Amino acid sequence: VQLQASGGGLVQAGGSLRLSCAASGRTSGINAMGWYRQAAGKQRELVAIITSGGGTNYATSVKGRFTISRDNAKNTVYLQMNSPKPEDTAVYYCSAGRIGGSLSDYWGQGTQVTVSS
Q: pLDDT tens digits, residue range 60-93?
């Protein structure tokens, strides 16, 4: 499975940005898809996860501001980032987990999101 993330860039605080991640290859076995982020000097952390059935889970810091969604027909997961804050600045990575596997068996290449104040 290959994951291709896109949509990162520079955004002003309070604006909006949408990240996309398309999966290709042997996608039939994918269950969860999600987004993680890693800020400079910090560990990678979970942002949001969505299962194939639509169940979601969010980091407390982004609840109410970010929305994860997926289009199973397109094997694509999205992260709608509303009202981003400077502390959301990080490299964002998409992930995918196999059925019966972990939440992140596969990783995308990462896309930089910079939020200016």
A: 999 999 999 999 999 999 999 999 999 999 999 9
Question: Does 34 score more than 90 pLDDT?
Answer: yes
Which amino acid, residue 28? S
Distances in Å between the Cα of 80 and the Cα atoms of 25, 30, 84, 89 are 25, 21, 10, 15
- Mean predicted confidence (pLDDT) in 16-26: 96
Q: Which residues pair with 3 in a beta bridge?
A: 23
Supply the pLDDT for residue 114: 98
3-state class (DSSP) for residue 79: strand
Distance CA 44, CA 109 (A): 13
Question: Could you tell me if 21 and 80 are in contact, meaning their C-beta atoms sit under 8 angstroms apart?
Answer: no
Residue pair 49/31 in contact (Cβ under 8 Å)? The answer is no
34: which 2 tokens?
């999600």
Residue 100: pLDDT band (50, 70, 90) is confident
CA distance linking residue 47 with residue 59, whole number of Å: 5
